[in-house]
Amino acid sequence: MTNSELKGRRVAVLGLGKEGLDLVRFLCRQGASVTVLDQNTAAQLGNNYKQAKKFGAKFKLGDMHLDGLEIFEIIFRSPGVPLQLPEIKKAKRAGVKISSAIKLFFDLCPAKIVAVTGTKGKSTTASLIYHLLKGGRSRVFLAGNIGKPPLALIGRLQRKDTVVLELSSFQLEDLHKSPQIAVWLNVVPEHLDRHKNFSSYLAAKKNIIKHQRGQDWLIVSRDFAGSRKSLKDAKGKVFIYSLNKVLKRGLYIAKGDIVYRTLDSGKRQVVTKVSDITLKGKHNLQNVLSAIAVAVLSGVSLKQIARKLTAFKPLEHRLELAREIGDVIFINDSLGTTPEAAAAAAQAFAYRDTAMIVGGVYKGGDIVKMAKDMAKHGVKFVALIGKSASKFERIFKRHAPDVATKKFSTFKSAIKEAYNQVRTNGGVVILSPACASFDMFKNAYKRGKEFKDIVKSL
């Protein structure tokens, strides 16, 4: 789709969140006739409504917003809107084109795209890639779920530029093009309420490589079964990394060093020591190696990579140090919304007495394995909150009986008790909920901020 194809077209933007507003802005500037469809009222949409109206959009809001989709020529759906909605299927059968902001960006972007997907670690990896690439011979932009709105870059981008994108399964599920460099992080079951089963979730993720060409790259770990399966679907070249195995080509860990064996000759070079990296936790080493791989393919020298790695600061709400009280540290990992992420957070601090705060709206993943992993990593106490507290309590009692658990009705009381459990021996309190937040908080960012506010008041 080109800019000229949008002028004068009857276009619907389905969902007026951050990405939807970016779409409205762009489409109105291209001369499209834009109608915003959203189940919320104008008052609920707040400033987004005011901005969209200012851009020139019309509106159809409330419970009947999906009626009559067939009158539009193109419908742009937001990531939160399922393709499987009956109204969307009906519109598609009637000949309406279904698209999205990301699909449009891929059509219009002249620059090289580096895209990152996986169940967890996408934002950290994308941010680290941007950090390693910026300041080089060509311009680099961080866009998408973090960074700048992608469509706002159209018109500024040149062929020699690079755009780094974080892509979720919701954005990937109908993507018709793939990036020049695809970073495939570990994929475990998540969002099964939307995708129905793991196979469908995995199929959505695979669109990141499905349309690649022979000169494109897949960067992938060999440490996970799901990641190794993606190798069979690779259409281009592959850059492999591993935390567990010495490789003849690629990146790996050996005796505390990050080692790169060149892709052409296999020459061994040490990038840096693991101990010099600011990101903590074994799971973050997966993110680090994938980001280094992108930098290597982009022509960044190993010396520059090592220097920049030491200067990188972890993202807010991802294993973020919130406060130290005496010998006790408080870690905010509010964006750890899967059991796998919570287990990884526990592992990152396995050398200390650990109390975890877990719970919220369960959205999939292996809770049994999480409980067993937490017991193995020395977690002594788990404060359970939110809608899933009873479910988690049953699983811990059955599969990790040595880990003490207690349910709490308030966030503050859970944090205080977690602190009391580890303050004597100088331990760590970790908020890594393994769940979504919307039963108690507006979003995971608000949950993390409240955690930090409470911790500062102790």
Automatic annotation (TrEMBL):
Chain sites annotated for binding ATP: 118-124
Mur ligase central domain location: 116-295
Enzyme Commission code(s) on record: 6.3.2.9
GO cellular component, one term: cytoplasm
Main location as per UniProt: cytoplasm
Domain of life: Bacteria
Domain annotation Mur ligase C-terminal: ranges: 317-435
BP GO annotations: cell division; cell wall organization; peptidoglycan biosynthetic process; regulation of cell shape
Gene3D superfamilies: Mur ligase, C-terminal domain (3.90.190.20), Mur-like, catalytic domain (3.40.1190.10), NAD(P)-binding Rossmann-like Domain (3.40.50.720)
GO molecular function, one term: tetrahydrofolylpolyglutamate synthase activity
Keyword annotations from UniProtKB, A to Z: ATP-binding, Cell cycle, Cell division, Cell shape, Cell wall biogenesis/degradation, Cytoplasm, Ligase, Nucleotide-binding, Peptidoglycan synthesis
Pathway: Cell wall biogenesis; peptidoglycan biosynthesis
Compartment list: Cytoplasm
Entry's transmembrane regions: none
Cited function: Cell wall formation. Catalyzes the addition of glutamate to the nucleotide precursor UDP-N-acetylmuramoyl-L-alanine (UMA).
Family: Belongs to the MurCDEF family.
Protein name (Swiss-Prot/TrEMBL): UDP-N-acetylmuramoylalanine--D-glutamate ligase
